[in-house]
Every structure is written in structure tokens, then in C-alpha cells.
Specification:
Length: 183
Amino acid sequence: MTGRVLRVAQMGHPVLREVSQAVEDVSDPEVQRLIDDMLATVQYLNCTGLAAPQVFVPLRIVIFRILKTSDNPAYRLTPQYDPEGVPLTVMINPTFTPLSDEMTSVWESCLSLPSLMGKVARHHSLQYSFVNRDGQTESRIAHGFHAQAVQHECDHLDGILYPDKLEDIKEFGFREEILKSRF
């Protein structure tokens, strides 16, 4: 894979609170270079997802994947919906629409809030659409962990971090302590 590993912005940096700009030209070499760098960063950090604002670029670009298995007990993978996981996906200018009012309380963590995690409510099912890096429009249905990941990453594009959606401040803290006491 080409691309360089990028530094991740931490909570408190203003770029994480900006509403990102739409990508006008997917074929722009700078956009394609950013995508390559984001892909390299996701692979290097072995994470679920990354949004462009997290690497100091306020553009509406997200990369995510859902692994088939995880040793992270906080990840409530949903193999009943995605038995093969979801391959590495580049989403440009993504949008989503909930498919119902059903919400699920889930534990989340984020590269921009290292060592922390918290419990938030997310839509259980949604439809999302995006332009891929080749300029083609795609649409998918997501449930469970897949839907959670899409919502988490898309929130970054609107300057929202998961602590903004905490159901109860008592369900927020250091990852190590939460994993010891609740899992």
C-alpha cells in the first residue's frame, strides 16, 4: 500500500469541531493522496475507522472496515448481519438515513480520545450512501456494529465527538478501568 501514516488530531484541537467541506473533485490528486495516506494510517493503527478531520483535513472523507473477529471486548460485532465483516471502504461525502427509531446503547472509543471510552445510543439500522474513490455512487444497508461505525465516523464530519452523545457521564472513563469493571 502506498501512502504515509498521518498524525491523529486529539480532542481539543479545533479541526475536530469543524463541519467538514464536501469533496468537489474525487479525482483531484490531492484528494487521492489523502485517501492513500488515510488507508495507510488505518492499516498501521489497525483501527476500525478514520475520518479526514482526524488527520487535520476538514473534508468529508471517511475510511472504515468491520473485521470478522476482534479481541476487543467492547466491540459488539454483529456477525448475524455481516458474517464476513465489511471490507476497507472509502466513503466520500457520505450520508445516512435511519431505517427505524430503534436505538442501541454501545461502548465507543476513538483515536482522537486515546485511552477513553463511553456509552452512547446509536441507530441500530440505517441506509447510507457515498461516492467511492473512483467517483461511483454506492448505497448500503447496515445494522448493529456496522451501523454504529458508520454513524461514529460520519459524526466526525460534522464536528461531533462521541462524548457529545453520552447517555450518562457515569458511563465515560478510562478504557482500561471500564474494561476491567464492565466486561
